[in-house]
Amino acid sequence: MRKEFYTALVVVLVANVLFYFYWMPGLLSLFFFVPFFALGIRDIRQTRHAIKSNFPVFGHFRYLLESIRPEINQYFIESNTDGRPFNREQRSVVYQRAKKVLDTVPFGTQHDVYKQGYEFVTHSMYPKHVDEKDLRITVGGEKCKQPYSLSLLNISAMSFGSLSTNAILSLNGGAKDGGFAHNTGEGGISPYHLELGGDLIWQIGTGYFGCRTHEGTFDPQLFKTNASRPQVKMIEIKLSQGAKPGHGGILSGKKVTPEIAQIRNVPMGKDVISPPGHSAFSDAAEMLKFIETLRELSGGKPVGIKLCLGHRREFEELVSLMVEKNSYPDFIAVDGAEGGTGAAPLEFTNYMGMPGIDALVIVVDTLKKFGVREKVKVLATGKITTAFDIVKLLCIGADATYAARSMLLALGCIQALRCNNNKCPTGVATQDPNLVKGLHVPTKRERVKNFHAETLGTVAHIIGAMGVSKFQDLTRADLYKRVDDNHIKTYQEIYASMV
């Protein structure tokens, strides 16, 4: 769009000069266009808004609609049927906290508290003070030589390739500034994950990008080299992803640049589709052995698994085998079927996998059933935008959380749903250099840090208001849900017989 703007500028200037010689009023039209071109130049030079930078002048229409909400925006949200993941309230929370602007609301709750499905926590007459610095956990079991202090809120897995260079730099810079972790996604460790020095959780998927032979199998020596990097704090083996469980990762060939092809060791310009399953192991026993191998090769760093829960019997078999062999992953990351992605088959997105809350309950309770809950940390994700979302997952049983889409919103994502065709207008999910340049890294990394800090600050306030000194003391009995017009139940009652 910048190219088109500059082209139009030249055309109009030339036309007006010609009109001046042949038609005197042509000069007047020049003065009419000058303010618009001045605005366009200003838009391109500013760094706060990627939309204005990438779409000079025209980008202002987006902010015009935003300025007259809630009437206009609410209309689009209520009439929208295209599956947008977040409503106006959720997006506003992220934008406001990322920009550190006032996020209080007038006129009471924005929800119908008598509507079925309404969730809440209760407060104590004797609130406590909770320090934000205490909102961390230590990940690493008995066999782990390099345990890691993990924040309660971290950046979920999103690969370079799916995201742009500037998006990765901004996320990693925000993680560095805010003291939290950045999951690489299965696309491997790029130079942009390393440049700013943010803590990394290196995700290894079925394509083994970053530790892959030319044939696509696991390469132990290459893994050891990358896992030994000081930025890599934890290693996560991706078994399945919520948005497409049982299906390999997908990267459109339009996004496979020479750089990405080199990082992933794949052909340039062709779709990159990872296998649905791992070739390094085929059952629970082999997977536990693989976890031990990665922990040893990495020098004793925490190694865990990420899954969207499928057959419950398979997970019970896995936990039973952990006990039998006294071999445990350091953590389990639970993704829900409602998870997001830049590209997935429709049927897998809508009809495969278990919803996140149900999966989290089963994972936590199965570990308790076999008496090993304290040996394995549990991470959870699922449309986290507010502090309440985090508190809810902590009540249900999670030790820490991941967020993906809200982090993208903090970068300036407007949910244009162009993630899979390389035309993301904000430069977040594209490899088009003309769009990527609109995303200003210093500005966006600060917004990522702000969102994290403001959200966890509110988490601390909520936990304190509940009369709890430590987040580890939260239970399902502290979380309520309206199940119908006349009945409210705690999550402890709702999920009493889940396992």
TrEMBL record:
Q: Where is the Glutamate synthase domain?
A: 138-468
SUPFAM superfamilies listed in its UniProt record: FMN-linked oxidoreductases
Q: Which InterPro entries match?
A: Aldolase_TIM (IPR013785), GltB (IPR024188), Glu_synthdom (IPR002932), YerD (IPR027283)
Q: Which Gene3D superfamilies match?
A: Aldolase class I (3.20.20.70)
Q: Which Pfam families match?
A: Glu_synthase
Q: Which domain of life, per UniProt?
A: Bacteria
Entry similarity comment: Belongs to the glutamate synthase family.
Instruction: Write down the PANTHER family for this protein, in alphabetical order.
Output: ARCHAEAL-TYPE GLUTAMATE SYNTHASE [NADPH] (PTHR43819)
Q: What is this protein called?
A: FMN-binding glutamate synthase family protein
The organism's taxonomy opens as:
Bacteria, Pseudomonadati, Bdellovibrionota, Bdellovibrionia, Bdellovibrionales
